[in-house]
Amino acid sequence: MLIGSSLKMYFGRARTLEWTRAVAAICAEHPAVRRGLVEPFVIPTFPSIPDVVTVLQETGAADAGMLVGAQDLHWEDAGAFTGEVSAPELAEHGVALAEIGHAERRRMFGETDATVARKVAAALRHGIAPVLCIGEEAAGDHRAAAAACIAQLDASVALAVREGLTGRLVVAYEPVWAIGAPEPAGEEHIRAVAGALRAHAAAGPFDAQVIYGGSAGPGLLPRIADSVDGMFLGRFAHDPAAFGAILDEALALEEDR
Are 240 and 12 in contact (CB under 8 A)? Predict the structure, then answer.
């Protein structure tokens, strides 16, 4: 099970490292992580990536399997792209995951299915697993939501499929209407859409997982665990204790089986 958080631009460097040390210490000792039941991850801002990698190594969290991600990447390997960061450079820093296509990137920075597809292919070419964010715009019927999300998924991996790329793909189902909301989407809705995405992704060429994001926090995992491969946490994980509580939930689920 894959469980982690994108810190977006909430924290500066000092707060990022404080949070990471606390969460890494929890993960390094937690039975769910040490037994391989949970693969934890953190996605900080670009400038904090090297320091976060060091913290995970120093605390033993890296040895326990905790991963570091990036919040974006460029689709080219090198060139005159001021302000951008390439997949090869991220790989040099030990980045294993890259968040791609988040609704905020689409809304604020004009990203499209075409640019997302190029970024997905770039990540896979360099051994970085895309954390591909997809989700329907408006609340509604789960069947329509699943159809919209599957279409978005197919468009986002189309270039990688044409190039014959394979590798790990993390599909982060985040209903756009649930991002930043007081509560996540309803559990039946999540289970229906995530289940449809899992079935569809399983037929593709990638080693695919589906995780849920969109106001995800403690208490949700036990209600949706049969339909997802993990959780993509946001602001509800800003308290390291909340991250630990979700690891506790993952452990309890395994022990109840």
Answer: no
Instruction: Specify the 3-state DSSP secondary structure of 150.
Output: helix
Q: What is the reported pTM?
A: 0.97
Instruction: For 92-150, write each residue's pLDDT tens digit.
Output: 999 999 999 999 999 999 999 999 999 999 999 999 999 999 999 999 999 999 999 99
Question: Does residue 168 have a pLDDT over 80?
Answer: yes
**Is 249 noted as a catalytic residue in this protein?**
no
Domains of the chain: 1-71+216-257 (3.20.20.70), 97-209 (3.20.20.70)
CA distance 7 to 12: 10
- The overall average pLDDT reported for the chain is 96
| Selected catalytic residue, list 74, 102, 142, 189 | 102
189 part of the active site: no
